[in-house]
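User: tokens in, sequence out, please.
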């Protein structure tokens, strides 16, 4: 884990983070490795590659790879989205310009991101993505289950987990409160780094 389990208190409590990392995320890794056991030809592939090339994955494990590679890739990214030390600041530089252009400002972006996460029905993720084909245009999107934006060619800059396991012990049914509180721990340095990187990354 990148930081102590209590490090994101009070916004994400220690028990939630412990279970989320050690049980949920670890379970996806275990299940991904189990699914790959019978297919050594895939052992060299990254979880990102597997997730974005499901049509090349054998039929008998495709569903397991889809769910568990997605779970591993998304959670690995999600932990980096938060920081106990630099969290809660605001974007700077070119990312501010892009947010002003595409959302009308940082506050408008946050409000739209919260609404998207709150309105999403069921288990999934809410993302800020960058369009590689469209001059780096920013967009908010949601994905179901453990789907990832790169499966549809969108480059992820920021993600929040809106599965109930991410917030239910502390926030119960109040997903909106979790989404609102989450800004206090967002690691904008990492988001900015990803934005700078967005034109260069290929899976
Ligand atoms: Mn999760």
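Assistant: Sequence out:
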């Amino acid at each position: 884990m990148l930081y102590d389990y209590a490090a994101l208190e009070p916004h994400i409590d220690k028990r939630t983070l412990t279970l989320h990392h050690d049980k949920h995320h670890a379970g996806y890794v275990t299940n991904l490795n189990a699914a790959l056991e019978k297919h050594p030809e895939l052992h060299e592939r990254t979880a990102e590659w597997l997730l974005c090339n499901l049509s090349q994955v054998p039929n008998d494990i495709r569903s397991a790879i889809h769910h568990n590679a997605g779970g591993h890739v998304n959670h690995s990214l999600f932990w980096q989205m938060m920081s106990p030390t630099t969290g809660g600041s605001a974007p700077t530089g070119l990312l501010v310009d892009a947010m002003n252009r595409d959302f009308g400002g940082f506050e408008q972006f946050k409000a739209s991101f919260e609404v998207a996460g709150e309105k999403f029905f069921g288990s999934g993720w809410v993302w800020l993505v960058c369009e590689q084909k469209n001059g780096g245009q920013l967009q908010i999107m949601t994905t179901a289950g453990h789907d990832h934006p790169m499966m549809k060619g969108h480059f992820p800059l920021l993600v929040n987990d809106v599965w109930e396991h991410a917030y239910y012990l502390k926030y119960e049914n109040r997903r909106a409160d979790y989404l609102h509180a989450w800004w206090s721990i967002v690691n904008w340095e990492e988001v900015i780094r990803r934005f700078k990187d967005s034109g260069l990354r290929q899976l």
